[in-house]
Write a structure and sequence with these properties.
Chain A: One of its GO terms (biological process) is cell division. The complex is a heterodimer of chains A (377) and B (396). Chain A is an alpha+beta fold. Chain A has a single domain, classed as Cupredoxins -  blue copper proteins (Immunoglobulin-like, Sandwich), CATH 2.60.40.420. Chain A is built from 8 helices and 21 strands. Chain A has a 6-stranded mixed β-sheet, with no helix packed on it. Chain A has a 5-stranded mixed β-sheet with strand order 1-5-10-9-7, with no helix packed on it. In chain A, strands 2, 3, 4, 6 and 8 form a 5-stranded mixed β-sheet that branches. Chain B has 2 domains: 83 residues, Immunoglobulin-like (Sandwich); 244 residues. The longest helix of chain B is centred in the middle third of the chain and has 31 residues. The chains are: A alpha+beta (377), B alpha+beta (396). The interface between A and B is large, with 62 and 60 residues.
């Protein structure tokens, strides 16, 4: 499970034994040192690096979060994934043409165990799809034949359960595509209905497999030819069209981590890393509209939410319609596995930093908060 | 070499050979440590479990710069503080000294958090493994800083709860001098009763306090060992020239009570610092009344002697003044393990004077039968009952 276990344990054991032998001596040393420290500090002589006044309103250069922030940065190199590129990184698979002329899109996904850094300095023993949390954001076009080759390199049985329309045999539940470590399974079905969907492992217990990180976005773009009445809208949703290119599309998976395994989350985020987009705001070109594919996979809490500051958006619940299901709102709620598409624009705004976050203040303060850096283009 | 031979040799040249024999186990121990540390024969027991982690919060300081906590690490490996939550919000913090925290060592965490006067807060450390260590601040009040006026104020409280009642009790001396044998036994038994109450009260408090200290201090054992050591040491010193009586016995009682009052001062000071007790007039008066019997107890062994006047001053200060010192330390440099240690030492000292006063009673009276006489039993029960009833005013 932990990749560096052998070297880890050698030092641990030797330290433990060394510690036992030296216990008497160190305890005495430790306590005398503490005694001195206490007096020193009692007299108020503690060195103060950059004292901030906790009662003063944070100034602009401290950012909108003030002192309410995780300390340090997560190194994307060690994790192998970076939350900023992840916003726009789609897995399109490989496309071939079948005998009947239809497109066949093939994805390859591997499950593996991986220790990831979910907040600065905090490691989490995750179960991943393709070594990242959330897993790859799969994107296809309505009506295509999809083939997902799934290999389990993890230490537990896993599956890919797609939210979509398919046969029971392709459902990814026990007895239908739930495979043991070392096995392979190919899920095959048509891409339908169009919308913003997700997939996740459906091994049991489901809670554990969800909160360990086994989920990802699964987006099916509408085929404009099938929706003549809303052709323009459908084209703007279809990746690769000129209409779509003017949009700034972002994938946001709202997730959380229970690092001490007590059945409640210690960290909340969008795309895994707590406060990632607060520390590195998402660059938005003012004139281009924004579309967010928003998916909630938060375990243990009944709902999650998305609130946009200083702006309103149109919302397409589950993304299965081409007209908004909610118009002109600045907050939506999602239960687990609920998802939808948000569309908004900063064209008439002043350039600057605009906040977004869950409007459960607890989630916000535990990491689920970010900023859009709206720039002139 | 057989055992008798060894004995014969050791009688000839005892020192060197004994040392040589001591070298053998020591060398073996060294080799064993080196082998275990290098070859790691226990590797097969490894179950990939994460290291054991433990943090103990020893001090909390609230001031205009936010919150500071002193935490002691007790993990099987050096521990890392990754993030700090205050009231379920990640908050910026600095660690002093920085870096991984070795087992047994402490660091200060400084969190610029705008705590709210009189309200509750919770600090939660998240380590690199994601384990969390919670500390609750039940009532946030500014931590006292040692200004001259504060030290005076605390000294005044200490004098009221420690020195004043002892002095009042000792002022009964002239009146008590006239009592007969039965009255004398009653007063001595009353003293034993009050001491017995203090012994139980102090031991329980020491054990309770020790539960809040880091596991590596082995709190309950620390208390028991400190108590046993102080008991045996004081017994040995006291019996150097026969069992103590008269003024000497009074001084031992004063010492035991002084240690108790020191512990009481620590508790009041700590409560003051933690904001868990408003030091109302009621509480201070309660302590004063509760401690009046202490003076009577100290006076009991010298009722039939004529000690010099200065000894009364000395007895009062020895028994009462430690409350002042306890208050200062308790509010400014409080740590659970030190309080537990001092309370343990105090309990041992109290046990010693119980033994000595009881012995004194049997010696001056009619042997063991004295202990079962009506005045003694009544005195003992009255002593315990008085302490119990007056304690109701000071227990929260």
């Amino acid at each position: 499970m932990r990749q560096n276990e052998p070297t880890d344990t050698v030092t641990r054991r030797s330290l433990l034994i060394g510690g036992l032998v030296a216990a008497g001596g160190t305890a005495v040393l430790a306590s005398s040192a503490a005694g001195q420290q206490m007096l020193e500090h009692g007299m108020g002589a503690m060195p103060a690096p950059d004292p901030v006044n906790p009662y003063a309103a944070p100034s602009a250069h401290e950012g909108a979060h003030g002192q309410m922030m995780t300390v340090g940065r997560v190194d994307p190199e060690t994790n192998g994934f970076d939350p900023t590129p992840m916003l726009t990184e789609w897995d399109l698979g490989t496309v071939t043409t079948m005998e009947d002329g239809r497109a066949l899109r093939t994805f390859e996904v591997e499950a593996s165990d991986k220790e990831i850094e979910i907040a600065p300095g905090v490691m989490f023993p995750a179960w991943t799809f393709n070594g990242r949390v959330p897993g790859p954001a799969l994107r296809a076009k309505e009506g295509e034949r999809l083939r997902i080759v799934f290999r389990n390199y993890g230490s537990h049985p896993h599956s890919m359960h797609f939210h979509g329309i398919h046969s029971w045999r392709m459902d990814g539940v026990p007895g239908a595509g739930l495979i043991n470590p070392g096995e392979e399974f190919v899920y095959e079905f048509d891409a339908k209905p169009f919308g913003c969907h997700l997939y996740h492992c459906h091994a049991l217990p489901l809670k554990r497999h969800m909160h360990k990180g086994m989920y990802g976005a699964f987006v099916i773009d509408p085929d404009p030819e099938l929706h003549p009445e809303f052709e323009a809208v459908a084209k703007s949703r279809l990746l690769g069209t000129p209409e779509n290119a003017s949009w700034q599309e972002l994938i946001m998976v709202m997730n959380a981590f229970d690092t001490n395994f007590d059945g409640a989350n210690e960290f909340y985020a969008v795309n895994t890393i707590a406060h990632a987009y607060a520390l590195q705001p998402i660059r938005i070109e003012k004139s281009r509209p924004v579309r967010i594919y928003l998916i909630n996979v938060t375990e243990f809490d009944p709902i999650n939410s998305f609130h946009l500051h200083a702006n309103f958006f149109n919302y397409f619940d589950t993304g299965t319609t081409l007209t908004p299901t909610l118009r002109t709102v600045d907050l939506i709620m999602q239960c687990q596995a609920q998802r939808g598409i948000l569309e908004f624009s900063y064209a008439d705004h002043e350039a600057g930093q605009y906040m977004f976050h869950a409007h459960q203040a607890e989630f916000t303060e535990l990491g689920w908060m970010g900023m859009f850096d709206v720039v002139e283009d | 070499m057989t055992a008798p031979e060894m004995m014969a040799v050791s009688e000839d040249r005892p020192n060197r050979l004994l040392l040589l024999w001591l070298l053998l186990p020591l060398t073996l121990l060294g080799i064993a440590i080196a082998w275990i540390a290098s070859a790691d024969p226990l590797r097969s027991f490894d179950n990939s479990a994460p290291p054991v982690e433990a943090f103990t919060y020893e001090r909390t300081i609230l001031d205009g710069d936010g919150i500071r906590v002193l935490v002691r690490a007790g993990g099987s490996e050096p521990m890392k503080v990754a993030q700090v939550q205050v009231d379920d919000a990640y908050w910026m913090f600095t660690q002093d000294p920085p870096g991984p925290i070795a087992r047994g060592s402490t660091v200060w965490l400084r969190i610029p958090y705008p705590w709210v006067l009189g309200e509750a807060h919770a600090i939660n450390i998240v380590t690199d493994t994601g384990a969390t260590f919670l500390h609750e601040i039940p009532v946030a009040v500014p931590t006292p800083v040692p200004t001259q006026s504060l030290l005076w104020q605390q000294a005044l409280i200490g004098l009221i709860v420690g020195v004043l009642p002892v002095a009042i009790g000792l002022l009964c001396y002239p009146a008590l001098r006239g009592v007969g044998v039965a009255g004398m036994n009653f007063i001595l038994a009353l003293t034993v009763g009050l001491l017995a109450f203090l012994l139980v009260d102090m031991s329980l408090e020491a054990l309770e306090m020790s539960a809040a200290s880091a596991v590596l201090f082995q709190g309950p054992l620390l208390v028991l060992l400190a108590g046993a050591a102080s008991f045996m040491l004081l017994m040995a010193i006291g019996r150097w020239r026969g069992a103590p009586a008269g003024l000497a016995l009074s001084f031992y009682i004063a010492l035991g009570i002084g240690l108790h009052n020191f512990g009481e001062g620590l508790a009041i000071g700590a409560a003051f610092a933690a904001g868990s007790a408003g030091l109302g007039t009621f509480l201070v008066l309660g302590f004063a009344v509760h401690n009046v019997t202490e003076g009577i107890g100290i006076a009991a062994p010298i009722l039939k002697a004529r000690p010099p006047l200065w000894s009364f001053v000395a007895l009062t200060l020895l028994a009462g003044a430690p409350a002042v010192v306890g208050l200062w330390i308790g509010s400014l440099a409080y740590a659970p393990q030190w309080s537990a240690l001092f309370l343990g030492i105090g309990a041992g000292a109290i046990a010693q004077v119980i033994v000595e006063v009881t012995t004194y009673m049997t010696r001056t009276g009619k042997g063991r039968n004295t202990l079962l006489s009506v005045p003694v039993i009544t005195g003992f029960l009255v002593g315990v009952a008085f302490m119990y009833v007056t304690a109701a005013a000071i227990k929260f």
